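Researcher: Please translate sequence to structure tokens.
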Amino acid sequence: MARQWRIEYEGALYHVFSRGNEKRDIVSEEKDYVLFLNTLGQMANRFDVEVHAYVVMQNHYHILLKTKKANLSKSMQWFGTTYTRRYNSRHSRSGHLFQGRFKSIVVEDNHYLLRLSCYIHRNPLRAGLVKRLVDYPWSSYLAYGYGKAHRNWLSTDLILSQFKGSEKHRAYRGMVQKYSRGIRRIPEDIRYGLFLGSKEFIDRIKSEYLSGDAHADILKQRQMSGESDAKELADEVASVLGCKMEEFQKTKRITKSAKDHRDLILYLLWEMGRYKGRKIGDLFGLGYSAVSRRAAMTRERIDRDKTFKREYKRIKSIIKL
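Model: Translation complete:
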């Protein structure tokens, strides 16, 4: 089976993330958090990787890192395999710990980097684990927001250098608070599911590091090769569901069945990462904020409603998303 592209080059900056297999825990107790971070530090030293930000959650993680060599896959493969082996040994278990291969997004080294670090650090707050980020010890936020002592493999200079003056930690705390709402837009700014950056940056990376024909059965490569259009894809999904896109714009009052169809189509478009909220909203007569709300509600429903989840998976299998 073909795999999605991995964009690797010297000096590349990535947002790397993964979750537990079947959304299960990747850490079970405090010693596991320590083990995770120790393994991450060993990976950084072993493969000459700079770690700029991180957060370890119960069933997933986010890491912002820079590869001095073109070795992201080798680095993260070693990390995933090593941590899984150590975790399994501690808990007398076997088998996979993470859900498939890790995901990675190439990040432009400018204000996108700062915004993304804020997004990563606010994970515990969004998950309701703490009321104040200062109370969560398993992220790099304390080093950024308060200048606390941190692990020697964590590199904070690149992000903090974007602040002028002597009170950079205070400024960073203010930035995290300022982006409490704005950073929710980060998923909307991810292009093709592969990049977070300006159009100029994306065009350059595509030109220099991507070559060959896209595999038609890989979503992100289909998107990159320009094979899908939002309206055409929405019409295709609607056809499978036995409805038409026009009925969603005729009236604000639609039946429950029609609303379910609308939300499925909307979420599938949003999940692709190619189309911005306003583009999706135009298809349904909805505003940007309404699209974000509907996408979040649909994701929650997929997680808790087995029947709705089966329909979601059925549609994805039919149209090869």
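Researcher: Any highlights?
Model: DSSP finds 16 helices and six strands in the chain.
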